[in-house]
Design goal:
Layout (H helix, E strand, L loop, with lengths): L1 E6 L2 H9 L5 H4 L5 E16 L27 E15 L3 E12 L3 H15 L13 H6 L1 E14 L2 E8 L30 H4 L3 E10 L4 E8 L44 E2 L2 E2 L4 E10 L2 E11 L4 E4 L33 E4 L2 E13 L4 E17 L17 E18 L2 H4 L5 E12 L8 E2 L11 E10 L7 E10 L5 E11 L3 E11 L16 H4 L5 E9 L1
Antiparallel strand pairs: 1-2, 2-3, 2-24, 3-4, 4-5, 5-6, 6-7, 7-8, 8-11, 9-10, 11-12, 12-15, 13-14, 15-16, 16-17, 16-19, 17-18, 18-20, 20-21, 21-22, 22-23, 23-24
Amino acid sequence: MKKRMKHLTPLASAVMLAAGVHGPAMAQDGFFDNWEVSGYARMHLSWNLENPYLMDGEDPNGLVGADRKGNYRYDMSMARSILKLNLFKDFGDSQFFVSGRLNREYETDYLEDLQEVMDQNARSDLFSNRSKSQVDLMDDVYNSEELRELWWQTNVTPTTTLKLGKQQVVWGETDFFQSLDVIHGYDQRIRSFLEPENEDVRKPLWMVNLQEEFNQLGGTLQLIFIPGQLNGAYDRGNSFDLDGGRWANNPNKGITFRTATFGADVPYNFDHKDADMDDPSYGLRWKSMLGDWEYSLAWFHGPSVNPVINPNPNNPLGVGDAASGAQFGGAYKGEYNSAADSTVGELIYPFVNVFGFSANRYMESIDSVFSTELSYIPDSPYNYGLQAGEAGGCAFFPGFCGIKEKDVVKTMLRLDKQVALQHFLGTSRPSFLSVQLFNTWITDYDRDDELVNSAGFSGRTKEFSTIATAILAMNYDNDRINPSLAVGTDMTYGGAFVIPAVEFAYGDHWRIRAEADIFFDDESQDRALQGFNNTNLFGYFNGNDQLSLRVTYNF
């Protein structure tokens, strides 16, 4: 929903002037006239449908947890208010856009208990006398003010478009798991993997975005340059809940790994020589047509989308050295920059190269759109080591033995189809069905490498891993009532999800969305710390079933 605003407010004018909007357009009469204003005000609520496991740290010598209150089932887990404002103006041969977002949360009883458990666990740290966890969930994670985007775009020549500023660039053919869409990281701390709009959780970046049309070849070449020093280190790569909040991986609620807790002090290191966030990123993509196929070829050099653990070569817990009798890889590339006397490892984003191919076309024979995506990541970083130190392994947690680089191929197949369900379900028009299949192949796999998908609590990574998903979106009452069903299953490690949802549209402004987020984990992954080295994707979500209600006013 957009409106025309004849004159900008003095505050909005000052914001754009401070942002450095200069050039000929500033001098033209009417610069402050006729801006398009859009955005939304939103209230987002959620409730636990299960009793999440909180790690109570009363026993610092053993990982034995207990629920502080006994049962958090049906407790409100989130009460979040969001205000987003967008301003846009088209000057003919150039455009300007700025977007900001304000996020505020009410501290529910559940979040208050999470913070209390975190602070208590910090007091149980083996190497620190800190009385607080040094992470405040409300101020450090949930409440924020963001400049989401600020860019200026112009036609340098009739075939050349230049876009400068903070922006989002989407590559690839899928909205689910990242394969070729690796330019930006995603913030999964607030509501992990569940937001339906990727643009709301994608991390925009300051960059130079140049596109050149080659009309004789029927294609477009896009060049991306991201100066590292203009972007904050936390704006790169995916961010997961490592602070013990409501979407911390099971069973880590109440434990922050970024400061000392149970001795598991694992800070971020953004200055590693092979994972230095001040280094630039860059890439290019060619997009064109070949017969009925639209295809793209891409290459990107930048930080890996997910962090890995660089282990402390002088682990203060007494494991990881030669005396342990286990194979310990030591620090990644021989460099470790965090405090050697109090940390067991550090989180880093090693820089990698991603080579990708995507293609799509309409297939008349099945009346569907077929899409595919393939990416090749040489030397992709994996943590390794399955046994914990007390079991004779080389590190305190699985995966903390070191980092091994593996050549990885990721593929995606997708089929989108309009299905006529009016006669069966009474919908007001054909429904939309999308089926996707994701596969990861470690080409130089060796089972004895003991690779893990995520350090901390993870099972052995397999050579091939496959996830299947499907979405059915329906429409009733002339699109005023819009139910949907999303399902997915991990065909390799076990587990699944089911997300039934319905969105009500009232006029041009109001949208109300209700959904249930239901997760199923394989029996082998269902545990409370016992056997904790046999958990993968859906094991992390064990105990996290949610009911969500989102009320939005678009303007």
